Amino acid sequence: MEKLKSVIPETLKRKIAESTVNDLHSTCSSLLHFFQNLPLFHQMVRDLTDPEMALCGKNKEAAMEAKAKGNECFAKGDYSNALRFYSQALRMAPPDVEDKEKNLLATLYVNRASSLHKLGFFLESLRDCSRALILSPGYAKAWFRRAKANTSLSNYQDAINDLTVSLKIETSLSGKRQIESELSTLLDQSRQRSSAVEKPNDDSSGGRLVVDSFGPEYVYKYKIMSNFKWNQCVSRPTKGRGMTTSTDIPLASLIHKEDPYAAIILKNCRETHCAFCFNELPADTVPCMSCSTPLYCSLKCQLQAGGQEFSKYKSKYEFPEDLSDVLEQYIRTVTSPGILSSKVEHAEHRHECLGMHWPAVLPSDVILAGRILVKHIQQQGPGAVQSKYHGILDLCQNYGQLSSDSKLEFHVYSVILLCCLQQFLAARLPLNPEITSEIIVLLSQIRVNSMAVVCMKYSDGKQPLDYDATSSVEQVQVAQAVYSRGSFFNHSCQPNAHAYFLSRTLFIRATEHVAAGSELELSYGPQVGQWDCGERRKFLEDRYSFICQCSGCAQVNLSDLVHSGYHCNRPNCFGVVVDSCVAKYEKEKLKHVKGPNSLQDMLNDDDISRVASRLFEQTDYSCCFGPGYCLSCGSLCDLEASQKKSPKLRFALKEHLKLCISLIHFTVSLQDALASCETPTTLIMDALKSIDILRTLLHPFNKRIAEVEDNIAQAFCSIGEIQVAMDHCQASIKILEKLYGEDHIVIGNELIKLSSIQLSMGQKNTADNTKRMVAIFSRYYGSHADIMFPYLRYLKREAGKLV
């Protein structure tokens, strides 16, 4: 694509760079005229749309080669690599090809089922056997393997049925003997089990702890607002459209739920997450039936995304007539796919899996624009009059604020996308300036309105309890989606609502009591406590083209003052010293303050009075924010000037801040660092000396100190010094509470770490921290907390044993 952009004339580039939305018809017309006479452009379109040149098509030879490698690994007992090669073969195998008079896909699913069973993935093995039987109902080996999986899962009656069917259709004498032996053994075991007296299960919750098991005083009662009818969109002069409430909303209430209008998985997650539901892929992945690009977690997701039905390639087989009615019904149930394509509302991937290369190489937001266009056209119906596609979702756009490079990029990608989509909808999408300009606007709408679909990266509660495992709770972006109604929620760096995702579905929950008439605001990423005001506003302006004026960016708050603040060099002074960048934004906030009484009302915070008491004493507030001056005692602590006067201090500050940053990265590769170090204790002691020096330079509430405290806590856990680890973990939490607030979700994540440490020490007060942790997660996720954080259930259960 860069090569194509480089040949565009400078005059046309300049015209595009200076264009507004009103100029798009002219710029698109000029670009189309230039491309139509450019051989490079036509060659690029052919490369992207010619199935013969695509790398994502099906390939029987490649599938057979991978199958042979899988067989070789299985014979050697290398089941992990066998699983990998069989999955690779399934991805490449055409659905209508036979291998030794059996459907190739069915054979590969049975082979992979064997590998899965050997590796202990019994449920996954069962599902693969069922997939093979949907394609080849008369496949005796598949029924036999399915019986093995059911036996391992204690589904004994199903296993008996599977063996009975396998015995009926097996043709070889040796095969029949093996099945009869297995069936006889299983029947004997079944009779023994039926004669045994089973003990009742006293756990009415089925082993699952409910969220309010610690009592109502710690858990918020969630309220789902019926149909969200109170949720209305209003327009404000300074912020445009936004969502407000016409009634009071209780804390932790679910205020919005929505499936995406269109969504696309990110390229870096194609191998790890389902291309439709965005959940993590299991070991028994399901590839697209028409191309080799996406992977799915199930046949249902594959079909919902627009894939072909398995039953389309189902081989005919006549079962023996002497089967019982019960067994015939069992066979029909097992060999039916369970979902039909006629039930799929919109097949978002279908226009992409025609054996062409472009869906695999174009950027995700461009593919997303294509999905929106195709869905809109299909919803209109074949006889509908062409409409302006950028009005589909009635979204705002920021084309006028885009950089010159982005405008040029959008122009080129719009033309390319339109040419690619013509292979599917040529009659409905003519190659003209009108459609091209509308795609450009749609791309700019996606840029500022799409949401990052995230999932939680956390440790399974079944794993052994250790600090390194529990410290990995984080949000990971896996997809990009447009939500028609969710896009109307405005941003705040101190939001009163929290957005999260279960699969593709967006949920928004109130994180505080919201009074009637108030605006409902989310965070578009940055929040108070995470970054300082300058960093937040720069990110939002660069990414979303607006200057944030939320309460967090318009009013003085403790977090912005101390987030990257320095320590006053005067003894016994707790004041904070800010640099020139922070001072700039804090001065701007004070322009809106009129008189000391107004400031006193706004800064009703004891901690602010400790770190910035001069704000309460001055009438000219701007004079307090001179770079290098302590906001409490007013003494000059100009670090830059001090460094110039003292090379030693300059070197110390530079080196210890460098070490501080390296310690922050230390978390990611902690185990590797300790494993490669002959004396890990020495490494940790060096870190302790550094943090002592950092405390003399940075303010006690500086976020970097919290991060280093957390890293050191993990390091002490790794060498078994649990008590010291707990002390450093608590020190980190105390700082983060000042930056984020005591009930923020970040504190909940940190309490998971603390509770894990306390639990390993057998401390009874683990229950108190766990109760608080549950309350915070309930505030943000309601009844979904246990679903999104399975480790919570483990902590609650184990902490309850210590009470």
TrEMBL record:
**Is the keyword Ubl conjugation assigned to this protein?**
no
The alphabetical list of record keywords is:
TPR repeat
Q: Which residues form a coiled coil?
A: none
The residue intervals holding the TPR repeats read 63-96
User: SMART domains under this entry?
Assistant: TPR
Ranges for domain SET come to: 228-525
- InterPro entries hit by this protein: SET_dom, SET_dom_sf, TPR-like_helical_dom_sf, TPR_rpt
| This protein's name | Stress-induced-phosphoprotein 1
Q: Which organism is it from?
A: Sesamum latifolium
